[in-house]
Write a structure and sequence with these properties.
The chain has helices at about 15-25, 75-100, and strands at about 35, 40-45, 50-55, 70. With about 110 residues, it is of the alpha+beta class. The protein has a two-stranded antiparallel ribbon. A two-stranded antiparallel ribbon has the order 3-4. The longest helix is centred in the last third of the chain and has 29 residues, at about 75-100. It is flat.
């Protein structure tokens, strides 16, 4: 399991199974990811969705409000997660560079 080493499950809403089922039903079990065609028109992916994702995160806790949750197909959920992970790695790298820079004796 991908999340086997994660402690994120501890932050889950105890009613998550109910919330998840509600969001999937609300979204008609269809992926809500916006897709742009060659002409710039935006439509929803519409593929069968079996995953529920947070649109935004504040980095501390998950906002389980219904307007922050959407149904996604596995493909779009994976792409979104990969993008968030890459951004997090990039930010961590920048923080490490800055920390190294300011650890120079000239700044002490």
């Amino acid at each position: 399991m991908v999340w086997s080493s994660s402690r994120r499950r501890e932050r889950f809403n105890p009613d998550w199974p109910k919330v998840r089922a509600f969001v999937l039903r609300r979204d008609g079990n269809r992926c809500q990811w916006p897709v742009k065609d060659d002409f710039g028109n935006v439509r929803l992916c519409g593929a069968p969705a079996n995953e529920v994702d947070h649109k935004r995160r504040d980095g501390v806790r998950d906002d389980d409000s219904l307007d922050n949750l959407w149904a996604l197909c596995r493909w779009h959920h994976q792409r979104k997660t990969e993008g968030e992970s890459a951004e997090s790695r990039r930010m961590n790298c920048e923080r490490r560079k800055e920390k190294r820079w300011y650890s120079h004796p000239a700044f002490k």
